[in-house]
Amino acid sequence: MSCCIAGGSALVGSSFGDGRSEMGVKLEVFRMTVYLTFPVAMFWIANQAEWFEDYVIQRKRELWPPEKESQRQELEEFKERIRKQREEKLLRAAQQN
């Protein structure tokens, strides 16, 4: 039994017409298995609730400690000053026109 592929070479029986050996096929199957297994395994690991709580949340707390009330207050005051400056600038521009 033979069939034709886009490149023009014919496949006969179970042998490959493009020169791939049985070892090459095994390597391709192995690589495809790794390509499919790795993302599935990472997804499974990342969705373990215990791991997420123990590792990710703890790591987040280490990297970004909770804000202090004084820091938050300073930021709010800064935003308010910038907003007032912007409003005054727009008001002056509107009065000039």
In total, the number of strands is 2
Strand content: 5-15%
First and last CA, distance:
87 Å
> Taking Cα atoms only, what radius of gyration do you get, to the nearest Å?
32 Å
Order of neighbouring strands in the sheet with most strands:
1-2
By helix and strand content, what is the structural category?
mainly alpha
pLDDT under 50 segments (min length 5)?
8-12
- The helix count comes to 3
Biggest sheet features: 2 strands, antiparallel
Overall average pLDDT: 81
**Sequence of secondary-structure elements:** EEHHH
Specify the overall morphology: elongated
Number of domains: 2
Helix content: over 70%
Family: Belongs to the PET100 family.
Keywords: Membrane, Mitochondrion, Transit peptide, Transmembrane, Transmembrane helix
GO molecular function: unfolded protein binding
Subcellular location: Membrane; Mitochondrion membrane
